[in-house]
Amino acid sequence: xxxxxxxxxxxxxxxxxxxxxxxxxxxxxxxxxxxxxxxxxxxxxxxxxxxxxxxxxxxxxxxxxxxxxxxxxxxxxxxxxxxxxxxxxxxxxxxxxxxxxxxxxxxxxxxxxxxxxxxxxxxxxxxxxxxxxxxxxxxxxxxxxxxxxxxxxxxxxxxxxxxxxxxxxxxxxxxxxxxxxxxxxxxxxxxxxxxxxxxxxxxxxxxxxxxxxxxxxxxxxxxxxxxxxx
Length: 230
Ligand code: CA
Fold this sequence. Notes:
43% of the residues lie in helices and 20% in strands.
């Protein structure tokens, strides 16, 4: 059984998430503060975390940051503020996805399934484990490892999948929609901008000068591609 840690101080929402995700067959653990979340994470090693930004004490962003230092568990952030900055921040700190409150509980269920499927697929894919290289960039799917010039690069699972797709076919242009489908398993309308944020963060991790990328290139009006000769 896959285990999900839900972190939210508002008991009504926490219980709603717990009841719904339990009904889908997941094992649920509840935490109501950031500290409880960090303790539960260490104790249980959950398969996925649903994490509210606004928490008393250690807030959700700090919780995500500390958990990211330890591993690649997928994180779906919940945010009350509908501002782009908040959403972007969620991705900057390494969240794999986010939902703005008030959210549909079914939508959360769909996102949870999609993120877990993506994670499982990238862990277990047979025959898709070919190591991809481009100049001094190496992506090893089996080990979920990316390095450039011998230096390991840390990416979230969403960033990893985007990079893997682009790198599988240097020179081929992928639209934002193709990329979001790849990372979510389905098309969610209006979230194509999410791809731009992932790309920005991949460049930050990968490129010598993220403002003038050599590897991950923008194709205006079309999408993104990996350079054939970076
Ligand atoms: Ca809250």
